[in-house]
Structures are given as C-alpha cells and as structure tokens.
Amino acid sequence: MKVLISADMEGVCGVTSWVQVMPPELGQEPSSTVEYERARLRMTREVNAAIEGAFEAGADEVIVNDSHDGMRNLIPEELHTEVRFISGSDKELGMMQGLQEKVHAAFYVGYHAKAGTPAAPLAHTWTGYVNDVRINGESTGEFGLNALIAGHFDVPVVLATGDDKAVAQVKAYVGKQVQGVVVKEGYSTFSAIHLHPTKAQRLIKEGAKKALSKLSDAKPKRLSKKSKIELEFDHQSRADQCLYIPGIKRAGERAVSFVASDALEMNQIFRALIKASRVQMSP
Ligand SMILES: [Zn+2]
Asked: φ and ψ at 119, to 5 degrees?
C-alpha cells in the first residue's frame, strides 16, 4: 500500500498568521524568519506523525508532496527517513503531485478552510483574491479541487488534519470516510485555541492509522463529465482578463465559468485562470 501526503501549512498547530507561513524574502525582518522556521519544523513533525501512522497501519511506501506557497517548506533532514518527498512549485498536479506514482490513499495534513469561512485561521482558496470556487453549484476550497484530482486517479482522500472548520468542510465535501484530526479551533481569521503540538502530532499519528484501517470502505470523489466550474474573484478586472482564454465565460460581475470534461482538465484550466487573473489593478 502506497500513501501520498499533501502537506499544507496554514492548518498546522500553532499557526494563525501569514508571518508564520511565508518564507522570508531578502531584507525581511529577522523576527518573521524565526516564526516561519518554527512553523515549518512543526509542519514537518506533523507530516512525520502521519507517516508513522501510515507505516504502522501497513503502508509499504509513503510520499509527501510539499503543497504550500513555493513548496519548499518541509525540512528534509527532519523528515522520517523512509519517506520520499516532492518539493518545488510548477508541478503538473500542484498540491496533488505524486498521484502519478500509483498511490492507494491520500492524506491532507495542515489544511485550511475555504475562502470566506468565518472563525477559520487563514481561510482562503488558492490566493487572497479568489472569493469562491463552485463546482456544479457547490462551493468548495482547495480540498475539494484536490479530492477530485485524486478521484481522477481512483485515489480516495482518507485523512484531513487542520483547524475545526477545515476538517468539517473536507468531511462535508469528500465524505464521512475522511478521518479528521482537529489540531486547533479557530476564533477568527487570525486567532485560534490550539492543542499542544506534541499532542496534535500524537493524534495525527492515530488518525492516520485509523484512516488506513478503513481504506477498503473509502470511495474516490469523482468529477462528473461536463462539470461546470465557477471562479469568483474580488474584482471585475480579474474576470476581464480570464475572458481572453477560449472557452471561458463571464458568470457574473466578478466571476467566470468553464466546463471541464474531467478533473485533469479542470485543474489545468483553473490554474491558467489563476495566472491570468493576477492583474495589476492600475495597468
Ligand atoms: Zn498553504
């Protein structure tokens, strides 16, 4: 049995601010670097906990895909020695890179809630200017798009760790098969009450074991053929830019839509739209 872990950072225990999840840029305050370094170590330990749980449940192989920001956050030397890890961005399957390796189950570690969710730390969908994503009319987040990409490869998502709202949203969208591990409860976008990191890691390990013990009942989440995907932005100019791509229609003042024949096409077009919509507000 092979397991893929998609590791994000906003849902890691102790994280409530962008400062903690943004890799430092040249000239940035050293204090923000310290916070990021601590958070990436906790992220790595949460991933290790999931890896240990997977191996104890009988996995022969675990692959982890760094899925946050530039995707170079996991600390290689601190990772479980028996894992292979994927790093760097611009990957065909983005947060779900590694599905090509014929895996049997996918885990979400450190996931966050979708854009617009109240009382959910750092809730967003892809970038700060996406207000909503709807698939056949149903609002979802990164977890939903990623579950459908996994479904394309016949892979069920069976574990989700993160804040309480994120875990609830993954279960509601993907199904009850998802073993949830809540490491913090959100008060607002920038505050939460957390478990101790060591306890959070212990629960993640137990959750991973439980998730795989029920794997035979888990079903991949599949995108139906000719599905309608809508993307709502924070500003009409972003929708304007997307209309230069063939097949994209306006779906409201600040929204566009397209029809995808499968989840891979959805992923491709969605990512092209994210790139196209990254416009300057005053050209
Ligand atoms: Zn992230």
From this structure: 55, 40
| Cβ contact 242:276 at 8 Å | yes
Give the distance (Å) from ligand 1 centre to CA of residue 103: 22
Distance 146 CA to ligand 1 centre (A): 13
Å from CA of 71 to ligand 1 middle: 9
At residue 283 the predicted structure's pLDDT band, cuts being 50, 70 and 90, is low
What the block records as the tokens of 241 is 């830019």
93: buried, middle or exposed (CB in 10 Å: 19+, 13-18, 0-12)?
Answer: buried
CA torsion sign, 17 to 11 to 39 to 73? negative
* Residue 32 vs residues 1, 35, 69, 74, 207: alpha-carbon distances, Å: 40, 5, 16, 17, 31
Q: How far is the CA of 11 from the centre of ligand 1 (A)?
A: 8
> Among the options 124, 194, 196, 235, which is catalytic?
124
Summarised one tens digit per residue, pLDDT across range 166-197 is: 999 999 999 999 999 999 999 999 999 999 99
Please name the residues in contact with 59: beta carbons below 8 A apart, sequence gap of 6 or more: 1, 2, 3, 212
Rounded to two decimals, what is the model's pTM? 0.97
47 C-alpha to center of ligand 1: Å? 14
- The yes-or-no answer on residue 194 being catalytic is no
- The first and second tokens of residue 244, run together, are 């230069």
Alpha helices in the chain (DSSP H): 18-21, 30-56, 142-152, 164-174, 197-213, 236-242, 263-276
| CA 206/CA 57 separation, integer angstroms | 10
Q: Which domains does the chain have, with CATH numbers?
A: 2-113+142-217 (3.40.50.10780), 227-276 (3.30.1360.130)
Sole residue written with tokens 């994503």: 133
Mean pLDDT of 246-263: 97
Q: What is the DSSP letter of 120?
A: -
